[in-house]
Design brief:
The chain is α/β, with parallel strands linked by helices and about 290 residues long. It has a domain of about 200 residues: Alpha/Beta hydrolase fold, catalytic domain (Rossmann fold), CATH 3.40.50.1820. Helices cover about 45% and strands about 15% of the residues. It has an eight-stranded mixed β-sheet with strand order 1-2-4-3-5-6-7-8, with helices on both faces. Helix 6 runs antiparallel to helix 7. The radius of gyration is 20 Å and the shape is globular.
């Protein structure tokens, strides 16, 4: 039987809109609380939603090995924090609280619920702050080589000494800082190491220095009093993680280790990291 001409014409349009609904949304923008444009990307569909937040002087591309893997089953959102990647630079104070509002702005723009926040390094504290602001939307936090010790303290003299080296020569201090993030005996690809060193040492110095100052000023324990959701970590063993301290301040705190590699676990061994993150997401989804 011959199909009506109208049906034959409609089918391609139906297919087009189905594909359009599944298409990645790259470099979307939303204004943060202080009117800084925040860039974000969306791929895939499915709950829980996974929101990935990069660390100090990184950007959304640091999750390039995770997006295609996890977007097969989940809606995956990657964000450039203010001053990073494609996001705006027009911010005065580069605090963890302000970065947290960047994450909140994206989540509220997309009207997301059942969110798991995944943060690398400085992205961990940023996600604690974001969860503090919108607790009903967040079901769990995943720290990626972060949250080693919520009770770690630095004297003002130590902070001043660290910041002084970056203020004197940001490029050299950043290069030395990043090189120290990789164990000397690690088998990390040297090309990857130099790529990360170049990325971070090329960041705007006012952002890098301001974000470091913001990191030292942030009180994670105070924020955690208001964040009553589980925290899981996937950490390298380069820096010891104090699980007891984590359990003391979080609703629950669990650790998975990736031994023998450096700070950028999701890039150095993406296959193993994706396996551990899958297990973690499944546990947080129960």
């Amino acid at each position: 039987m011959r199909k009506p001409l109208a049906l034959l014409l409609i089918k391609p349009f139906i297919l087009f809109f189905i594909l359009l609904g599944c298409a990645p949304e790259h470099n979307q923008k939303v204004l943060s609380a202080d009117n800084v444009p925040i860039s974000y990307n969306v791929e895939g569909n499915g709950n829980p939603v996974l929101v990935f937040v990069h660390g100090w002087c990184g950007d959304a591309s640091y999750w390039k090995f995770q997006v295609p893997h996890f977007s097969k089953q989940h809606k995956v959102v990657t964000i450039d924090l203010a001053g990073h990647g494609e996001s705006g630079l027009n911010r005065q104070n580069w605090t963890i609280e302000a970065f947290g509002k960047d994450v909140v702005a994206v989540i509220e723009k997309l009207d997301l619920d059942q969110v798991i926040l995944i943060g690398h390094s400085m992205g961990g504290p940023v996600n604690i702050e974001a969860a503090r602001q919108i607790p009903k939307r967040i079901i769990g936090l995943v720290g990626v080589d972060t949250f080693q010790n919520f009770e770690a303290e630095y004297t003002q003299e130590q902070v001043d000494e660290i910041l002084s080296s970056f203020k004197t020569d940001f490029v050299e201090a950043s290069s030395n800082f990043v090189h120290r993030m990789f164990p000397p005996n690690a088998n990390t690809d040297s090309v990857l190491v130099e790529q990360i060193v170049t990325d971070m040492s090329s960041a705007p110095s006012e952002v890098g220095i301001g974000a470091l100052q913001g990191y030292f000023n942030f009180d994670p324990i105070g924020a955690l009093r208001e964040v009553r959701i589980p925290i899981h970590c996937i950490n390298s063993d380069k820096y010891p993680t104090n699980v007891e301290v984590g359990q003391r301040h979080a609703l629950s705190f669990e650790l998975k280790l990736m031994p023998g590699i450096g700070h950028f676990v999701m890039m150095e061994d993406p296959e193993k990291f994706n396996q551990l993150l899958t297990e973690t997401v499944n546990a947080l989804s129960l």
